[in-house]
Amino acid sequence: MIVFESIKYKNFLSSGNQITEIQLNKSKSTLIVGQNGSGKSTALDALSFSLFGKAHRNIKKDQLINSINAKETIVEVKFHVGKSQFKIIRGIKPSVFEIWKNGEMINQSSHAREYQQILEQNILKLNHKSFHQVVVLGSSSFIPFMQLSTSHRRDVIEDLLDINIFSKMNLILKDEVYKLKEELKDIDYKISIQENKIETHKKYIKDIKILNEEVKEDKLNQINDAYHEKIELENRIEHCQREYYKNIDRVEKDLKDLHDKKQSNMHSMARVKSKIESLVKNAKFYEDHLECPTCTQSITKEVRETKIQESKDEAKTLQRTMNELSENSEGIENSLEGAISHQEYYRGVMTDINNDEKEIKRLSTFMQKLDKEVKNYSSDDLNNANTELGNMVIDETDLKQNKKDLTETFKYNSAILEMLRDTGIKTKIIKQYLPIINKFVNQYLQVLDFYVHFDLDENFHETIRSRHRDAFTYDSFSEGEKQRIDLALLFAWRQIAKMKNSISTNLLVLDETFDSSLDIDGVENLLKILYTLPDDSNVFVISHKREVLDDRFENKIEFIKEKNFSKILN
């Protein structure tokens, strides 16, 4: 059982920089009141965000940050499961996601999505969808069980009955069956090749027996030479192809990089040359002018000589740079020649490959011609051929045995896979619990003063009959009647969860449930259910009906809005 202890948050939605903290297991029943926009539902959104990274209501993540402070949004929830104490911390600007167990943070080396899976699957045993069916019943952004798709209804019930492990096993086994199917295809292909080899070899042996001994040696030698030449060419083609495809991209890249380097070096040389020419002009100016042409002031000899010498010194330095760039240019040109040579080499390699392939075709035609000309082989050839045939048959037998073993494994896993499908073992378990689920739902419907017979089948389709046995669907009822069904399902789910010890929790939040479609009798009947909940339950009711509910709860929390920030009234 998950026992939620506390939730605290700051800079979350309308809450400011001061921490808001709510004890979740303090009282059996707590009424949360306040004006519209005062922050009543913020705690629920904070709880949902801390556990699942998204709010209860349909609010985008970046909209959860308090719009005034615009940073340092932080939410922290504490709970325990058995003897293990947990703390979840989540934040925005900066981003924070931490899971603490018994005072130590669980390793965050995994991806955030995997970290979330650890929280939901290994700790909470609860996902966002189930959270909204077992823990929360709200009027805002809430999709009742009866309005879920069939697949989503199945997910909720599988979580409740703690049988989603079969779905996980199903996915794993699907992958395994797929691999086995591919292995069987592969081994069938190998068997087919082996059978063709055997048939070809049998024909070869048959030919040996009838071939002419006199022409055997020369023709066989030619065939053997052609075969080895063919093998050699095939190996060479394979080697050349590997070499070509391994290196051609690198060679092309090197060639491009060298062209880029050449261009860059040329630009540098042009810049240096321009600077040298400017310095020469500057020196020439001071050599030719005894006075400033602009202000007509005379230029002293010392100044002229200093300026001329400075220009010459800087020009010498730049000339050395120019020489280095020129040497670099020669090196680049040499490298370019080498790269072009490599490119031409690999293009020649591809030409050689094409030529070798033509030669292989010629050799194959030649070998076929010789094979027809050969009339007989020696007994040694025949013995060797028979030995090789025997080895081929053994290999074929091994392949067929392997196929048999794989086929048996495939059939076994396929049978298990069939059992793990939605229509298999899960449906059998669901069928066992359906009478109990329907019993609980109908009991709660009676408490809520709604006398119909509710029946959910294994396909999660409902049949609702009146006292007169008239059949209805969920959609055919009024909003108030629908809400009674939703409430009955909520409490039934909690009963089942407690029985299965699957997603059982102390916390129950009713968000504006009393404010929607329930009439006075409905309110009283719902309160009657709440009063009968186990002592380890902690119910929070968010409502505007303060005048009706004020004295019906052990504890009360009132939210107010002060200077645009939500806070709890002390």
List keywords for this structure.
Helix Hairpins; alpha/beta; 6-stranded antiparallel sheet; 6-stranded mixed sheet; 15 strands; 570 residues; flat; Rossmann fold; 12 helices
Separation, N- and C-terminal Cα atoms? 32 Å
- Level-1 CATH class name of one domain: Alpha Beta
Mean pLDDT: 83
CATH superfamily of one domain: P-loop containing nucleotide triphosphate hydrolases
Structure annotation, total helices: 12
Taking all Cα atoms into account, the compactness measure Rg is 43 Å
What's the total count of β strands?
15
N-to-C series of helices and strands: EEEHEEEEHHEHHHHHHEEEHEHEHEE
CATH topology of one domain: Rossmann fold
Structural class: alpha/beta
CATH architecture heading of one domain: 3-Layer(aba) Sandwich
Poorly predicted runs are none
- Strand-residue fraction? 5-15%
Biggest sheet record: 6 strands, antiparallel
Order of the strands making up the biggest sheet: 2-1-4-5-6-7
Q: What overall geometry do the principal axes of the alpha carbons give? A: flat
What does this molecule look like?
With 570 residues, the protein is of the alpha/beta class. Among the domains are: 2-126 and 505-568, Rossmann fold; 215-376, Helix hairpin bin (Helix Hairpins), CATH 1.10.287.510. The chain contains 12 helices and 15 strands. It has helices at 42-52, 112-124, 128-134, 150-160, 164-210, 213-288, 301-373, 379-420, 425-447, 479-500, 520-531, 546-549, and strands at 2-10, 20-23, 29-34, 73-81, 84-92, 96-101, 104-105, 136-138, 453-456, 462-465, 471-472, 507-511, 538-542, 555-562, 565-568. The strands form 3 sheets. A 6-stranded antiparallel β-sheet has the order 2-1-4-5-6-7, covered by helices on one side. α5 packs antiparallel against α8, α6 runs antiparallel to α7 and α9 crosses α10 (479-500).
